[in-house]
Amino acid sequence: MRHVPPLLIRAAAIGVAVATLSVATACGSGGGDDNARGGSAGGGGFDPAKCQGGTLSVLNQKDITHLDPARLYTSGGGNIPSLLFRTLTTRNRAGGAAGAKVVPDLATNTGVASDDAKTWTYTLRDNLKFSDGSKITSKDVKYGIERSFAPELPGGAPYLRDWLAGAANYQGVYKDPAGIKAIETPDDKTIVFHLRKPEGDFPFLATATQFAPVPKAKDTGVKYENKPVSSGPYQVESYQKNKKLVLTRNPHWSRSVDKNRLACPERVEVTSGLDAAVINQRIFTGAGKDANAVTTDTDLGPSELARLGNDPELDKRVAKGHFPFLYYIAFNPKQKPFDDPKVRQAISYAVSRTSVINAVGGTALADPATTFLPAQKSMGYQKYDYFPAGKAGDPAKAKQLLAQAGHPNGLTVPLTYVSDSKDGTGPGAATAIQDALKKAGITVKPQGLETDAFYEQTGDPKKEPGMMLFGWGADWPSGFPFLQPIFDGRQIPPQGNYNLAQYDDPKVNAEFDEIAKITDPAQAAKRYGQLDAQLGKQALTVPLYTTKDLVMYGKNVKNAFVSDWTGRYDVTMLSVK
Amino acid sequence: MTGYLLRRLAGALVVLLVLSAVVYTIFYLTPGNPALLACGKGCTPDHLKVVEAQMGVDQPIWVQYWHFLQGLLAGRDFSAGPTVDHCPAPCLGYSFQTDEPVLALLFDRLPVTLSLTLGSLVIWLVVGVAAGVVSALRRGRTADRLVTVTTLAGMSAPTFLVGILLLMLVCAYLRWLPFPSYVPLHEDPAAWATNLVLPWVTLAIVQAAVYTRITRTSILETLAEDHIRTGRAYGLTERSIVGRHALRSALTPLVTLVALDLGALLGGAAITESVFGLPGLGQLLVDSVRVVDLPVVVGLTLLSGFFIVLANAVADLLYAVADPRVSLGEDRLGRRGA
């Protein structure tokens, strides 16, 4: 669960992942969803059987945070890690809503749950090999997970420390080679996880790179990322951090052992440290090698969108999708006047979502939101709008509520935001809110803080401001990582807190535990949707908008589609031939 | 001369030591915990403590600084997981962000920044001095006015704007050059130069404008001096007056300026490197400050400080060459020359 400096999350797209969809299905024609299959710009259809060859060029602003599977987290890897690391499960590599499903990767299924979803068992497929030719066993997966606990290798997804039985204080495999008892490997193909509480979302977590196998004999600790042993379709030819990563084929990988990835290009070259405007311009222009270029961390902005309208040829080279991400106003009801629900409701009525969306680039980049969960089936979305502000806000209704709350002459409130952000947590959105609230007699005193200071202050329950602009994205497309960090009262640490309402209702906490026992994602989604609809009545947040993702790809690039899991096209499925 | 150099060296060491202490203090006092960043999201307080201990940032500032000095003079050991890594002296530590040795990181980035800086230096000096001379000799005429307006525009133009505009024009619209990506000189000199032309020009446009202005003023001042009038009275040709006398005197302030600019730029022409995606020291600095990568920031500051000190010393030496009135020896009263 993460909060999400939006920049990070966009650079993201879980670098992990995997999928069941067969190559034939994944690349079949049609599907009825425009997002599901990206275009094949440059003419000619896309044929997975003939797509192999060429060099894919990836132009990025930032480098992968780490090329070590123990240290990668959703925000830090883009899609690139999924070219190198296979995991027990992975994301379904398809566009739109179909891409929000979890599917098996190294394992034969997404996991067999027992003991109320407290025990999860996986069986590995046959003939799995590392890039050095050695066999991948369940012990390699266990070792990969155990080394991710080492303080020498910080930064990975935090869930396992909380979820695995008795792992909270485990110091990693270098200090404690005995390993974690809660992970058993009765034979080379079986791995069993014992959790301290039911976790129906475990198959989603098993897409994280911490679940990638690492051969103990090749582990070089912090230096492992210089030349990681690959279990995916490519291996590292050369790596200069923050400069260039060159990947070539893993001779021990084939489509016969991996039904999820197409891995069409012979070679992948990732260049980082580029300016966002330059990246988009290079892909637009498509000169020379740039015809084969894509980016895994740069969205199109308002200025580029203006060009698209005038150039239908460019418009065809844009993949569109939705990463589940919400921008919202967060209240701290421990502070006056936000302790009064009527004040929070008045602000909910007063906001103008149209103004906010215009401030961040317009309707091409954002959809108005009135629910906390983004409008995606996988998240459990249920429509509601308890404080209908319409497009431009309802200042009259807001004034009425303020009068009822004892503020007939209006009131003055602070609004804390990220001063160096360009999106919904930044000055543009803050000004739009300030204007809208003014019409309802509410004077907003803006308090801009730089990113670090903002998260330090908002994450400390004792220093938390009264009203903040915030953004939240999900590590995987389920209601759990979207709702639980924000509304579970047991999730209020002294630092890095995201439950900004400091909301702690035993009944809601218990409902989180109950839903965690459900192993069917569709069933769980339904319950999360109901929970969201119930929480929304309390006006603990004011949802503002969800994001749309538009990413450009080069002239020669084919099969570019965007899934609801990542909001980016999947580099494992791209072709340049 | 030797005494002078030794004194400069000792002074430089003191400056660098103070600089490193100041950077440590600033980073210690500024909000932002590198361990929190490394620990990642969802980091529990207990886990944070373990990571802080691993990174050594849980120690008081003087202990951290003492370890830094120890590494510099005698080398240090770092835990690298299954093994222990010895970082030999002079050890600037390992990057918090990438776990690379800082010294290696700096040497890896230095050629890029050197290529960028020295290449653009040649352009801005040639263009700046030539335009300055022309402008001074054509004072008040059309050429002078043209140069004045152009330099004003050049000086006012933000580097990122010039860079992006050049990229759009030359690479995207005219397609005369590929979008730059750094190629090391020893790998392919032609590709090295082709890829650096635009960054050179971008950096040179802003700098050349300043140099034009200074050359112009300096030459005009010199031309008004007595010795020039005397020269003219002796019947020296205008070419000799300008080339041999006026320009040489005018070069003295330029030498100082070149030294200061070069020192500062070697510390990182951050914006130009960012716009063109050149993996140089400037880009490294921007990345490192953003993620509170203290060892890299300290290393970069020391390197930058070293260049500035070095450039100043070289400038002092060049003074003597450019201007015969300057001497580095000690005069009979024991005072050092200017």
Describe this structure in words.
The complex is a heterodimer of chains A (577) and B (338). In chain A, β7 (183-187) and β8 (190-194) form a beta hairpin. In chain A, the strands form six sheets. Chain A has a five-stranded antiparallel beta sheet with strand order 1-18-14-19-15. A five-stranded mixed beta sheet of chain A has the order 9-10-11-2-12. Chain A has a four-stranded antiparallel beta sheet with strand order 5-6-8-7, covered by helices on one side. In chain A, α12 packs antiparallel against α14, α16 (479-487) runs parallel beside α18 (521-536) and α17 (506-516) packs antiparallel against α18 (521-536). Mean pLDDT of chain A is 89; it is low at 1-43. Chain A has 577 residues and is α+β, with helices and mostly antiparallel strands. Chain A has helices spanning 6-10, 23-27, 74-77, 81-84, 138-147, 159-163, 202-205, 276-285, 302-310, 312-315, 341-350, 353-359, 395-404, 427-439, 451-458, 479-487, 506-516, 521-536, and strands at 2-3, 55-59, 89-91, 102-104, 112-114, 119-123, 183-187, 190-194, 234-240, 244-249, 267-271, 293-294, 318-321, 325-331, 366-368, 411-418, 442-449, 467-473, 541-547, 549-552. The longest helix of chain A has 16 residues, at 521-536. With 338 residues, chain B is an all-alpha fold. Chain B is 72% helix and 2% strand. In chain B, β1 and β2 form a beta hairpin. Chain B has a two-stranded antiparallel ribbon. Chain B has helices at residues 2-29, 34-39, 45-55, 61-74, 102-137, 142-156, 159-173, 189-223, 226-233, 238-266, 270-276, 281-290, 294-322, and strands at residues 76-79, 84-87. In chain B, α1 (2-29) packs antiparallel against α13, α5 (102-137) crosses α8 and α5 (102-137) runs parallel beside α13 (294-322). The longest helix of chain B has 36 residues, at 102-137. Mean pLDDT of chain B is 84; it is low at 330-338. At the A-B interface, β1, α6, α8 and α15 of A face α2, α3, α7, α11 and α12 of B.
